Automatic annotation (TrEMBL):
This is Ribose-5-phosphate isomerase. It comes from the Eukaryota. Its EC number is 5.3.1.6. The keyword Phosphoprotein does not apply. It comes from Vespula squamosa. It is an enzyme of class 5 (isomerase).
């Protein structure tokens, strides 16, 4: 089933390049390179530690989540678990449906036991950049509804400070009519370079699931007070949400090259 999802991945989400990356890393026999193996062991450990019978779980977006879904399917079949899955994106919703897991929504389940999601970068203080796949707003909403927010990632996503590993910048979801003034305000106030994210499979900018644009802010490396910066960014008229997840995650699991899983904090 998981290979069937991979074959259809490009049709499911044109804004998420990570699924294509996973598709290129795995052959049809299911063999995985070291990076995918690292993602898998992190995802499996998180699912095994946080999911039990009658769990309501938020399902994040990204290539690592595919491994989490795979493990959920295994455990539901083997242990006859009753779980409800709340998606953070169109991609997550399709993974839930195509793997015959129970789909829920925040209207019916406003309080989640846990939410499990990937990350673009996690620093030593558990400041997180997310939104490389364009789903930051819905990911943050679902995470905010969960008792425990868990990050799963491979070893390349861990760093001492933001921007050390991830070079694509901080995603910022904005109202389309305001993107130019917002670009200028961020550059004037903080420096760096702000670019509108352009689509790959269509002409023009990426459009989020919510009908907005995404700006990617390549920030100066001397910035460090991310809680304050995040609050200030959200006060700019037209900014919907940022890809900065500050003081939100309870734990992060990183799959390592030696087959172990590093936990933070």
């Amino acid at each position: 089933m998981i290979l069937k999802i991979l074959v259809r991945a490009k049709a499911l989400s044109c804004t998420f390049a990570g699924v294509e990356l996973l598709f290129n890393c795995m052959n049809i026999s299911g063999n995985m390179g070291p990076l995918e193996t690292a993602k898998k062991i992190a995802a499996y450990k998180a699912i095994d530690e946080y999911v039990k019978d009658n769990t309501v779980i938020g399902i994040g977006s990204g290539s690592t989540i595919i491994h989490a879904i795979h493990r959920l399917v295994e455990r539901v079949k083997e242990e006859k678990l009753n779980i409800v899955c709340i998606p953070t994106s169109y991609q997550a919703k399709q993974l839930i449906l195509n793997n015959h897991l129970t789909l829920g929504d925040l209207e019916s389940f406003p309080k989640l036991d846990c939410a499990i999601d990937g990350a673009d970068e996690v620093d030593a203080e558990m400041n997180i950049i997310k939104g490389g796949g364009g789903c930051l707003l819905q990911e943050k909403i679902v995470a905010s509804c969960a008792k425990e927010f868990i990050i799963i990632a491979d070893y390349t996503k861990h760093s001492e400070k933001l921007g050390q590993q991830y070079k694509q910048g901080i995603p910022i979801e904005v109202v389309p009519m305001a993107y130019v003034p917002i670009q200028q305000k961020i550059e004037d106030n903080y420096g760096g370079d702000v670019k509108i994210r352009m689509a790959v499979a269509k002409v023009g900018p990426v459009i989020t699931d919510n009908g907005n644009f995404i700006l990617d802010w390549h920030f100066p490396q001397d910035l460090s007070d991310w809680s304050k910066i995040n609050e200030e960014l959200l006060l700019i008229p037209g900014v919907i949400e940022t890809g900065l997840f500050i003081k939100m995650a309870n734990k992060a699991y990183f799959g390592m090259t030696d087959g172990s899983v590093k936990e933070q904090p």
